[in-house]
Amino acid sequence: MKKKNLSHTLNYPAVFEPAKEGGFNVSFPAFPGCVTFGKTFEEARRKAGEILALWLEELAVHHESAPIATRYPMVDEITVNAPSSLTFVA
């Protein structure tokens, strides 16, 4: 009997970081090296989906396994009082 190739809907955390030159850099903690960039958040999100799909396709072509996302990063903003003598760089 021939094995059927079933597709799966997967969710992976993506990290969107504002880039110095504008736009957003995107990375995936579960896939080191899988990165992309978009000039707007919407473009970055779309390109992130495209690059992750290509990454998974490449794993499948090479008969490699994909990790299952079991840990999700949490991002929050912490407020602190900085010393008045501290200098800042942009």
Automatic annotation (TrEMBL):
<dbReference type="Pfam" id="PF15919">
    <property type="entry name" value="HicB_lk_antitox"/>
</dbReference>
<dbReference type="InterPro" id="IPR031807">
    <property type="entry name" value="HicB-like"/>
</dbReference>
<feature type="domain" description="HicB-like antitoxin of toxin-antitoxin system">
    <location>
        <begin position="12"/>
        <end position="70"/>
    </location>
</feature>
<protein>
    <recommendedName>
        <fullName>HicB-like antitoxin of toxin-antitoxin system domain-containing protein</fullName>
    </recommendedName>
</protein>
<dbReference type="InterPro" id="IPR051404">
    <property type="entry name" value="TA_system_antitoxin"/>
</dbReference>
<dbReference type="InterPro" id="IPR035069">
    <property type="entry name" value="TTHA1013/TTHA0281-like"/>
</dbReference>
